[in-house]
Amino acid sequence: MPRSAPLRMLALALLGACSGLVAADLPLSGGHLPTRWDKQVSATAPLPEYPRPIMTRSAWQSLNGVWDYALTDAQATVAPTVFVDAIRVPFPYEAALSGAERKSIPGQRLWYRRSFTVPAAWQGQRVLLNFGAVNWDSTVAVNGKAIGAHRGGYDAFQFDISAALKAGDNELVVSAWNPLKVDVPDAQVLGKQRRESGSIFYTGATGIWQSVWLEPVPAAHIADLKIVPDLAGGTVAVTVVSEGGAAAPVTVTVRDGAKELAQASGTAGQALSLRIADAHAWSPEDPHLYTLAITLGTDTVGSYFALRSLALGKDDQGRTTMLLNGKPYLQIGALDQGYWPDGIYTAPTDDALKYDIEIAKQLGLNMLRKHAKVEPDRWYYWTDKLGMLVWQDMPQAYGDLDEAARAQWVTEWQREIATHVNHPSIVVWTTFNEAWGEKAFDVPAMVALTKQLDPTRLVNNASGWDDKHCGDIADTHAYPGPWSGKPEAARAAVCGEFGGVTMAVAAHRWNETTGVMGYGATLKDGWKVTSKYQKLLMTAWKLSKEQGTCAFVYTQITDVEQELNGLLTYDREVIKPLADIVTAANRGTFPALPPSTATPDLVPTAEEEAVLWRYTLVKPAAGWTEAAFDDTAWQSAPAPFGHGMGGVRTEWTSGDIWIRRTVTLPAAIPAKLDVLLKHDEDAEVSINGVPAASQGGYNDGYAAVPMSAAARAALKAGANVIAVHCHQTAGGQGIDVGIVAHE
């Protein structure tokens, strides 16, 4: 919880607020929903691992830890003179692990301050100040001298601070403003962050949220690497981008473990090709990495690469599909939003960051779609090392963007690709998600730009809904699904989101009192989650064989705040379904489930098994909802009724349908009940002639609607009649109904 210490803050203000005073009692807490890794977080030196595994240096100094902070108006350009509180970097302002844990501050600028000393061994070298990511508009000053500014919440940036340094202590001041702008012409790229958490949007992550560090370099040094593997040719091309040494000599050495395989010399800016004998291909099943040692003058960095290929090709039936290492490869993945209850955008430890990938692999997944967020470089290192394919989204901006906002979007997208292009696990770039942010935006041009920036990977122009018929992938979102279009001559067919099976686990929720967001009824036990998941994956594997759909992305790997459709709870403590059944399903086998120990639904829906209803498409006579009404002239067929939505057993395409069903209830009926409604569009439900529930519009799954007190009173042991009217205007349509005990 946020600290309240007005007397201490006043004392600090009078004393000038030095870092030591504030750091002394900064709490270390995982907040109201901690994770198992919180106890491993260092109070003064969190996330101590080298932050950039794709280009390492042996000499460096972490600046993670306790900083002073203060707030000003968002437009302030001068740091405050007094800093009266402390924050733990690199956890964002809103996170419990930051020690602040306060609400987002879109109207204020967050100022950080700390001191540091440059090691004596760095004498005579340039000193680079690195930021993994700061959300969203930031400035940097050292010893009162402005160093630079940066806009963009998801990309790393760096400043040479050598000219501003002095002997002994140096003062570093960083400011950050996260406006959380949505649905305005100058909206920022912000992904799922919101000022207030709700539905499929979550808590903002203001300020520094990735590691900050210093490293010494010579005047002529390595600034970047471009690594291009060629599996077919058994080579890797390495280009060294230099700073201050345009024609400096370069040497690149390839090793496989301790064994040196190849070495090449040339100059900076020149692509050096190295042949790899007996090339060992990288895949999720065999994530083999080679290491690199690169020198430019006196500067040396380490890196790594993998030999693997990506392309579109044909399967054994001549359908366009995605190839990995020259062969069709079915990708079974999950949506991964990268949120944490204790750190918001920032995993508490490196082990925690790695865990999500490890558990995904244990559950039989071979792909993660990194959705609406870009992770720290170490996350991609673990996907490279552990073997997990990655589909990387561009985080969304929203609304009809003006010219300046589009230019900023393009700048951030270019940086995202440039800073992640060397990670072999990334196989797909996704420019846009659904219809978010691309109104009047030139999607074909953005796809072409992406191909120009990285011709080695596949490009998904829009994941779901708003396909502009360009790029390499035709992507369908289907809840619960899955389904997809058919493969095209030059595009593979995928289901980029499906499922969303919802289950709330008490004591493992972000907020026990708020509503639950999901894509169907909230289930009460893991057996039902398992059963639903198995059926979804049966459909996926059938689609892959019969139609050629070559990738599926289940929503999602973990719960996120109020969205409770994860395979795991938000704190990663509970795997909701039976793990062995899920693993088998993801790998294409479907063993029988063990007997369920759960109490069966009072009136099951037709989702699991066909249920017969009487129905008519002609408006019936008055009294049709009454138990005594004669419906023998109506037709009989199994629900769900509908068209253009998943799970339909009886086609219904007219504007209205009326359905009736007689159910037998036991003597013991729960006091409070919910009506489960899958409806598109307006639905009205009566029981024994008494209105029980109604819902307008449509939903993607089964919504639990509280049964009216009058309808509950009308229920009796023995025969009862459920009567439903559904009205449809446009698009897909469908209706199915059940009754369950209210949770």
- Look at the structure and name the CATH superfamily of the domain at 313-586: Glycosidases
Distance between the ends:
29 Å
Q: What is the number of helical segments per DSSP (H or I, 4+ residues)?
A: 9
Shape: globular
> How much is the average pLDDT?
94
The name CATH uses for the topology of the domain at 313-586 is TIM Barrel
In CATH, what is the class of the domain at 313-586? Answer: Alpha Beta
* CATH architectural group of the domain at 313-586: Alpha-Beta Barrel
Which spans of ≥5 residues are poorly predicted at pLDDT below 50?
Answer: 1-21
Beta-strand segment tally: 45
The percentage of residues in β strands lies in: 25-35%
Largest sheet: 8 strands, parallel
Give Rg in angstroms: 29 Å
Structural class: mainly beta
Helix content: 10-25%
What is the spatial order of strands in the main beta sheet? 29-28-27-26-25-34-31-30
Secondary-structure topology with pairs:
Blueprint: H1 6-15, H2 19-23, E1 61-62, E2 65-73, E3 85-89, E4 108-117, E5 126-131, E6 134-135, E7 137-142, E8 145-151, E9 157-160, E10 169-177, E11 193-194, E12 202-203, E13 207-208, E14 212-217, E15 221-230, E16 235-243, E17 249-256, E18 259-267, E19 271-275, E20 290-296, E21 299-305, E22 310-314, E23 320-324, E24 327-328, E25 331-336, H3 350-362, E26 367-370, H4 377-386, E27 389-393, H5 403-420, E28 426-433, H6 443-453, E29 458-463, E30 473-478, E31 492-499, E32 502-503, E33 522-523, H7 526-546, E34 551-555, H8 579-586, E35 611-616, E36 635-639, E37 641-643, E38 650-651, E39 656-665, E40 673-680, E41 682-687, E42 690-695, E43 703-706, H9 709-714, E44 718-727, E45 733-741
Parallel strand pairs: 11-12, 25-26, 25-34, 26-27, 27-28, 28-29, 30-31, 31-34, 32-33, 37-38
Antiparallel strand pairs: 1-14, 2-3, 2-4, 4-10, 5-9, 5-14, 6-13, 7-8, 7-10, 15-16, 16-19, 17-18, 17-20, 20-21, 22-23, 23-24, 35-36, 35-39, 37-45, 39-44, 40-43, 40-45, 41-42, 41-44
Helix pairs in contact: 3-4, 7-8
